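User: Please fill in residues for this 243-position structure.
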């Protein structure tokens, strides 16, 4: 087993992606410090999928299923696959209306209108990247959305690499997958104010949550921080179309 995969798999003793949540107040009370950033880019990803109005959606590397749950029944058929049986167990428990399977996407034969890979490619070892991208293309009838962490943030010990658009495009081209870039965007820029708020409300001494403050923080994130550039964006979302 790849050591970095093992680090990720060990975290699925708890479905941590379900900690931050919407309404009536966006909340981290259970607690995930980067929860508002997570909610921000997840909401944008959901919007992009809904804009494509697919009848079917496959999420490769779905983890505990949070993204497919947020998409909701706007997509009639949703399926998630992940190599982690623990993560799939949580996904099934939280989202019984979605089909989940602990399997390598390369073993599937069916195709979907949209295929997503959200913060997964960075977990793939270098010698597996080409095959992984080819699998995304093979499973798609039309659109592939790839989201990855950028080089604007320090390399996580669970990750093999972080990305700029040039590296992602190089890997897609080298894979030979029949994918053409339609567009891309950078999501969520860092903020000293948010870093200070995070430290002040969640540290080793105390955890504090005030609903009004969380509402203000969420509005600040959504209105001021969601749009970013290649220089400061924490996440890169690339939209490919199958040729």
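Assistant: Residues filled in for all 243 positions:
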């Amino acid at each position: 087993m790849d050591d970095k995969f093992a680090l990720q798999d060990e975290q699925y003793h708890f479905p941590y992606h379900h900690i931050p949540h919407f309404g009536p107040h966006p909340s981290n009370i259970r607690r995930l410090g980067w929860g508002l950033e997570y909610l921000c880019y997840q909401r944008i990803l959901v919007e992009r999928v809904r804009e494509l109005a697919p009848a079917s959606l496959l999420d490769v590397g779905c983890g505990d299923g949070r993204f497919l749950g947020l998409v909701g029944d706007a997509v009639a058929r949703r399926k998630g696959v992940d190599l982690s049986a623990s993560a799939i167990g949580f996904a099934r428990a939280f989202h019984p209306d979605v089909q989940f399977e602990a399997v390598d996407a390369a073993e599937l034969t069916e195709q979907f209108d949209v295929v997503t890979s959200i913060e997964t490619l960075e977990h793939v070892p270098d010698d597996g990247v080409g095959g992984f991208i080819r699998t995304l293309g093979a499973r798609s009838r039309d659109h592939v959305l790839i989201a990855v962490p950028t080089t604007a943030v320090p390399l996580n010990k669970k990750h093999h690499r972080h990305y700029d658009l040039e590296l992602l495009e190089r890997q897609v081209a080298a894979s030979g997958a029949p994918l053409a870039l339609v567009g891309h965007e950078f999501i969520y820029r860092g903020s000293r104010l948010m870093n200070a708020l995070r430290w002040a409300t969640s540290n080793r001494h105390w955890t504090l949550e005030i609903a009004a403050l969380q509402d203000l923080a969420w509005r600040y994130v959504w209105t001021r921080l969601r749009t970013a550039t290649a220089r400061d964006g924490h996440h890169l979302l690339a939209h490919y179309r199958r040729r």
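For context: The chain has a mean pLDDT of 90.
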